[in-house]
Design a protein that fits this description.
This protein is of the alpha/beta class. 15% of the residues lie in helices and 33% in strands. It has a single domain, classed as 4-Layer Sandwich (Purple Acid Phosphatase, chain A, domain 2), CATH 3.60.21. A hairpin with a 2-residue loop joins β7 and β8.
């Protein structure tokens, strides 16, 4: 199962469409982490074969999408949220505890517009960054999750550097004092 993860597209669907036109046929599922969640509706019409899960962010004002969601794909629990309610711009302590309470295998969040991955106490965490509005010290990016038939997980952030998308190492060490 290959999952593509977007966040913080802010009404600019063109970069997501370009990525999906290039690799979408290799994906089974799309997750959008909000800001702007309605962008996922545009993608759903353009790519109806992709199963989609969407949550709203702090810039989403309609109640069409939940603020958080726990889904199961290939026997892996995936907690998805935008992250603004969990203070992810300051630290990852709150989101860690919510993921742990939900017995998540994977926790996906956005909000910061900066990609990051880490693993803590058996939970994979990924912020795919922003495909449309990266922070000045970042780059356009999205995430890919692969869950193979044996249940093995692989998470990758793909960033656009020098007009080319390629895997980027954005893994950090999660220190206990951050919890």
């Amino acid at each position: 199962m290959r999952i593509i993860v977007f966040s913080d597209s802010h009404r600019n669907v063109l970069p997501m469409k370009k990525v999906l036109d290039s690799i979408g046929r290799d994906m089974d599922c799309l997750i959008h982490l909000g800001d702007v969640a309605d962008d996922a509706n545009v993608l759903a019409r353009a790519y109806p074969e992709l199963q989609q899960y969407v949550v709203r962010g702090n810039c989403d004002y309609s109640g069409l999408f939940p603020e958080e969601k726990l889904i199961t794909i290939k026997n892996k629990k995936i907690y998805i949220t935008h992250g603004h309610s969990h203070g992810v711009k300051h630290d990852f302590g709150r989101i860690f505890y919510v993921a742990k309470e939900n017995k998540a295998d994977i926790c996906l969040f956005g909000h910061t517009h900066v990609p990051v991955t880490f693993r803590h106490e058996g939970i994979y965490f990924m912020n795919p960054g922003s495909i449309s509005l990266p922070r000045p010290d970042s780059f356009p990016s999205y995430g890919i999750i692969n869950i193979n038939d044996m249940g093995r997980l692989e998470t990758v952030v793909v960033g656009c550097i020098d007009n080319h998308y390629r895997p980027i190492d954005v893994e950090i060490n999660f220190r206990k004092e951050e919890v």
